[in-house]
Amino acid sequence: MMETSRPTVYIETYGCQMNVSDSELMLGKLAASGYTPVDVPDGADVILVNTCAIRDHAEQRVIGRLGELKRHMTATSIMGVTGCMAQRLGPQLLEKAKHVSLVVGPDGYRTLPAMVDSARNGQRTIATTFDMEEHYEDFTPRRFDKVKAWIPVQRGCDYRCTYCIVPTTRGSERSRQLPDVVREVEGVVSEGMTEVVLLGQTVNSYNDGTHDFADLLRAVGAVRGIRRVRYTSPHPNDFSDRVIRAMAEVPTVCEHVHLPMQSGSTKTLKRMLRRYTREGYAECVQKLRAAIPGLSITTDIIVGFPGETDADFEETLSAVRELGFADAFMFIFSPRDGTPATRMPEELTVPQDVAAERMARLVETVRAGARALNLTQLGQRREVLVEREAKRGEAMVLARSRDFRSVLVPGDATLLGQYLTVELTGTTGSTFTGQIVSERAALPLAG
Ligand code: SAH
Ligand code: SF4
Ligand code: F3S
What is the CB neighbour count within 10 angstroms for residue 376? Predict the structure, then answer.
């Protein structure tokens, strides 16, 4: 009986949304080639781990996980490592984990079915060549999320921030053709989804040779049946007036920007090669806020970058206090092999205990700011889209406002994908609680 059933594939994803989107493409490709996707690794014929290399901690977690997953393999299962760690480490991964037989970087997924087949026939394969033309245009992604769709619009990165491994793991920047993106968005709507998130490492530098990101926002925003358009992550330097105007004028584009600041110190930003100053970043925020009423801004911040002094760090804290972020992802600098930051003079290294202390103060400052902001919003109404059930058995669902606030409201799985109007009644950390004011089905979709 086993011989006649379709082989199964399990995939586990680490890292950013781009990786989630890549996993969806890989799973779609393998499903089209006769594999059945499964939700648990136990006994799967193919186990894939789609990895992230952004910080050492992310890599260590994956190394540990590869060992754990080994226990779920049968005598005939194979394991593959894909994504940014695969690209960065290549053959070293085969050395480190003897039970891994496939290592494929982000541009190598086109031939995944053939490589998986040969791995199942006992061959170990590595594919880490970049392909500037590759967008997996003819793949049909198998989406994990039923409410919002990840839409990659750009791959790679042409910035060279001195701390960052991404240009090494994902190669040069390239954009998909606008009509291809629009076609994918139309497909997503016909499957019943109403929200899309456009993805790229510096997504607002999108340019397909004819169209820029402003054109893309207008085209995607006008797709019939789309109610919410988001994008991540933009770079402050690529917010042209055209892009800001498009964001302000297209009603489906949501009032939220995730705008990584990294540091509030111009000196540090310069060493990071971020290509903007503290003032330049603040000016970008002001322009966006002036154009888009009710805009909420979230950010990424790194502490302990080489050469960051107490005074530099204080500038990051004051920027956080001044700019009114709704939330922030915060990271302790992690040196990545081969990046320029690792070649900075030894004496610039910030000791771990100092970095940890700064991190604690930053977290406190971000939380205090977010809380103060949230308190001003209690009693307000928001249109929210129900994304998922909260914890099991709690009879609560997590919904998202256009300005990217999480709101916990009473309800169950029947509400998934529905739009509700809620009143914000309480706030705990970065989440609100809300009461449903009006419940209505999602608008009829395109057709
Ligand atoms: N392309 C995006 C960032 C992608 S990486 C951008 O430029 O905004 C996501 C975040 O990880 C970064 O914004 C940065 O804050 C953090 N990060 C990247 N490399 C890091 C490193 N070596 N150590 C610590 N944090 C890092
Ligand atoms: Fe990394 Fe900078 Fe590119 Fe973002 S813009 S992916 S931080 S090099
Ligand atoms: Fe990680 Fe690669 Fe994304 S390094 S953050 S998975 S681009």
Answer: 8
